[in-house]
Design brief:
Elements (H helix, E strand, L loop, with lengths): L7 H10 L1 H21 L4 E8 L6 H11 L2 H10 L6 H5 L2 E6 L3 E8 L2 H23 L6 H27 L6 H27 L1 H4 L4 E2 L14 H25 L7 H8 L3 E8 L12 H9 L11 E3 L2 H18 L5 E7 L3 H16 L9 E7 L15 E5 L6 H13 L4 E12 L15 H4 L11
Parallel strand pairs: 5-10, 6-10, 7-8, 7-9, 9-10
Antiparallel strand pairs: 1-3, 1-4, 2-3
Membrane topology: Multi-pass membrane protein
Subcellular location: Cell membrane
InterPro entries: Bact_polysacc_biosynth/exp, LPS_length_determ_N
């Protein structure tokens, strides 16, 4: 699987075989999200809309948005709300954005709905006051109120004095008087044009009068992320991390799965492949502690990345496979010999296959006339220790494909060599699914019906 492309069937296999573990991790993630919601209290957000009359370009609106959240406006709002020097903290709780129709929406976030409403309204009011002060449209000062009107009065008085000077000049009698009247008229025209341009350039003439479009609506729900969102996000995050972790472990898996790879790692040859009916509910007598029960409940004791057990034939077909293994051992051994059957202690399928192999060797038709005498020895895969050679003259390794790493297989071979045992062969044990009986009244096939059982296309195939 380390070289295969990850497909949907792989995801489905994870969900089907490790759903309890994934559910447990999702619950843990939900608890972490709940803890985060306790550490970070809920927040509420309210928004107030400010209308900017007149024609505004996009860059001008963006400038007003920056002004609405500037330190000058925020500090004034903090002072009015009685926060003192908390303008820096308040700046992180306010925001503004330009909406359609020359509208700036100012939002405030607080711990309570009422606090959020007050903050949004105060920010809108301070923004309007500050913008009016910048554009000169602030009517709070007496100078600002009388400045434009006084300028208009000065221009009117100047025009009247120009008219008086023009009338006082001797009209048409001398060249100097004509030139004086012409200069006075030019001065009058220049003053009128300057006053007209001043009125047109006055920003308060068409862009003043910002108004708040009603008070901010008091929020009825929490601002995201809410407690429910944190709980759901934590559960989803832990669930996805668990799935990604399974996929990463599968991609990094280097356990040999083929018969040739396993035999090469043990430095021996393959004797055959046998079928073992899958029994998910079977329990070994050891490992009944709390940790072992938890591992079994979560499904950690079984490999999720192994293919689903394939359908097997009947009992007679499975028995023929065990007899073939005994026959090949008899052919490889010139005389009746005693062999150790080495099985990894955590490989339940191999342990059951070894027990069945011993039974067939003792009760087969060649028992006592050539079949070797087998004795099962279970060894830990991490630090295997095989008994020293006594009456046995070799070792037969039985294991499940894809269950051991190359290092573990090499360790088992070295342990056999240290005990003085030659590894005469390898037997692979495949977990299979027993087919239900097709017809209860149909007689079982005869024991000698080998051609039908040996037909090609068997689910577990191989060299059984």
């Amino acid at each position: 699987m380390s070289e295969d492309t990850i497909r949907l069937v792989t995801i489905g296999r994870i969900l089907r075989r490790r759903w309890r573990l994934l559910a447990a991790l999702a619950v843990v993630g939900a608890l972490v999200g709940y803890g985060a919601s306790v550490l970070f209290p809920p927040r509420y957000t309210a928004s107030a809309s400010v209308l900017l009359p007149g024609q505004w370009e996009e860059r001008e609106l963006l400038t007003q948005v920056d002004i609405a959240t500037s330190s000058a406006v925020v500090d004034r709002a903090a002072a009015k709300l009685g926060r003192g020097d908390a303008g820096g903290d308040l700046r992180e709780r306010v925001s503004a954005k330009a909406a359609d129709g020359n509208i700036i929406r100012i939002s405030g976030t607080a711990d309570t709905p009422r606090g959020a409403q007050r903050l949004a309204d105060r920010m809108a009011g301070e923004f309007i006051a500050f913008a009016a002060r910048i554009t000169g449209g602030d009517d709070t000062g007496p100078e600002a109120a009388t400045g434009p009107e006084a300028l208009r009065e000065k221009v009117t008085e100047t025009n009247r004095r120009i008219s008086d000077l023009a009338d006082a000049a001797d009209p048409g009698r001398t060249v100097e008087s004509v030139q004086a009247r012409t200069s006075l008229e030019k001065l009058r025209t220049a003053l009128e044009e300057a006053m007209k341009k001043l009125e047109e350039a006055d920003p308060a003439s068409d862009k003043a009068g910002m108004v708040v479009m009603g008070p901010a609506v008091r929020p009825t729900g929490e601002a995201p992320p809410t407690r429910v969102q944190l709980i759901a996000g934590g559960a989803l995050l832990f669930f996805l991390l668990a799935v990604v972790g399974h996929l990463t472990a599968a991609r990094m898996n280097r356990r040999p799965r083929t018969e040739a790879e396993i035999a090469a790692a043990l430095g021996s040859t393959l004797i055959g492949t046998v079928d073992v009916p899958a029994e998910p509910g079977a329990r070994r007598p050891e490992g009944q502690g709390l940790l072992a029960r938890t591992r079994r409940f979560l499904g950690l004791g079984t490999r999720w990345d192994m293919p689903a057990p394939q359908a097997s034939g009947d009992e007679a077909g499975r028995r023929i496979r065990y007899r073939r293994v005994c026959a090949r051992l008899r052919e490889r051994l010139p005389a009746p010999r005693r062999l150790l059957v080495v099985v990894p202690e955590d490989d339940e399928t191999a342990r059951r296959a070894a027990g069945r192999l011993v039974t067939e060797a003792e009760s087969g038709p060649s028992a006592g006339g050539g079949d070797p005498l087998l004795r099962v020895v279970e060894v830990p895969a991490s630090q295997p220790v095989v008994p020293d050679r006594d009456t046995e003259s070799g070792a037969l390794v039985v294991l499940s494909p894809g269950s051991r790493t190359p290092e573990e297989l090499a360790g088992i071979a070295e342990a056999c060599a240290d005990g003085g045992h030659e590894v005469v062969g390898v037997v692979l044990a495949d977990a299979v699914r027993v087919r239900p009986a097709r017809d209860a009244g149909r007689p079982a096939p005869a024991e000698g019906a080998a051609p039908a059982l040996a037909a090609p296309g068997h689910g577990t195939g191989g060299s059984g």
